[in-house]
Amino acid sequence: LSYTLGLVGSCYSIDTACASALAALHLCATTVQDSCTDGIGVGTKILTQITNLAMSVAAMLSLAGRCHTFDRRANGYCRAEGCAALLL
């Protein structure tokens, strides 16, 4: 993103499983407070076949293909892709 938009300054790639976006935003906020005026924190989640297979084998995915949050029918969770960016 930095290269495509011609941005200058620090650029990090953070992989902390489910907390990558939170870690990126924390680093962005800390950097904005300490040494720069603007920052963009971005988080993405991309589904891959190997991860879906691993979660299926571990019986983590819903057999019904739906999340039944706070319901006795709940039997796992459903995954989705997403992307969000926050300009600080």
Automatic annotation (TrEMBL):
The keyword Transferase applies. GO terms for molecular function: 3-oxoacyl-[acyl-carrier-protein] synthase activity; fatty acid synthase activity. Coiled coil: none annotated. Keywords: Phosphopantetheine, Phosphoprotein, Transferase. Gene3D superfamilies: 3.40.47.10. One of its GO terms (biological process) is fatty acid biosynthetic process. Residues 1-88 form the Ketosynthase family 3 (KS3) domain. PANTHER family: FATTY ACID SYNTHASE, SI:DKEY-61P9.11. It comes from Aureococcus anophagefferens. This is Ketosynthase family 3 (KS3) domain-containing protein.
